[in-house]
Known about the structure:
The protein is of the alpha/beta class. It has one domain (5-308): Rossmann fold (3-Layer(aba) Sandwich). Helix content is 48%, strand content 13%. The chain contains twelve helices and seven strands. The chain has helices at 5-8, 14-18, 23-26, 32-40, 57-68, 80-90, 104-118, 142-170, 191-210, 229-243, 265-275, 294-308, and strands at residues 48-52, 72-77, 94-98, 123-126, 173-180, 216-223, 287-290. The protein has a seven-stranded parallel β-sheet, with helices on both faces. Helix 5 packs across helix 11 (265-275), helix 7 runs parallel beside helix 8 (142-170) and helix 8 packs parallel to helix 9. The chain starts with a helix and ends in a 7-residue tail after the last helix. The model is unreliable at 3-28 (pLDDT under 50).
Amino acid sequence: MPHGLDRRLDGATDAARITPGDPDRSGPHLTREQQEARSMTVRLEGQIAVVTGATAGIGRAITRTFVERGATVVGMARRPEPGAELEVELGDGFRFVSGDVTAPADCRRLVQTALDRFGRVDLLVNNAGYGLPVNRVEDVTDEDWHGMIDANLTSCFNMCRAVLPVMQTQAKGLIVNLSSFAGEQALAYMAPYAAAKAGLVQLTKVVAVENRDRGVRANALIIGAVPTQQSHDTAREVAKFLRGPDFAPDRSKPIGSFAGVRMKAESVARTIAALCSEDAAELTGATIALDRGFSAGWLSSTLLELVACQAIDWP
């Protein structure tokens, strides 16, 4: 039994009972309009969430949203500075642990930190990962292949392995794994990333069916186009790979707009919060496309429209 979990069996620690949902955190002087808006918002009151990649991009938005809705987040990332900044911003709602999710010992330490401080783990969001570098399959190095698999798949396995005994003892818990449309559709020049994200979907399903009678659920999210520093960096690398290191896109002649499929990280985080609420308690083993219809056929439909309107050449 993991250290600290025996205390959970007699109830949460004092910190867990007091910190999440503390009136001082939610604002004791809310106006009537604010109180009404708050009552209509999906709440995660008192939940203890572990989030990887918690200090940047989508992970930072998830952390903020969870705390705003009453959860307490224990988050991990490699760089300590953004974590310290987020602790100051979110106060008692966030505790940062510096570490690397590709290292099993760091993953165990993250879960243990949540147990020692709060006595349980209700939610795990596996968000950490990256999409670089890019290359053709035959040119992918062993180092790049293993690095991408470790960052985007093995890291999630490490976290699942660390948290499952805790959730099984609690007979309650939810794991959310953030995959990508690259895990469902072929994405040229990004074979290691695509393979890892596809594997993550299958890992999620196995976790779900193995724990179907233990009170532990698992779902995978197919995340679409979200403008973050990481997604911009990946797009630039693909452009340089195809057109050379000095390539600069000509935005004066756009052939179409991706505005309809682009999502904000904050919007994605709110949707994830809804899927982590008790209202979604029957959902497990699911692969959910959170991409504004991209994986359902948005790109092919847009291509058809552009061809029909002669916006692009068609032989």
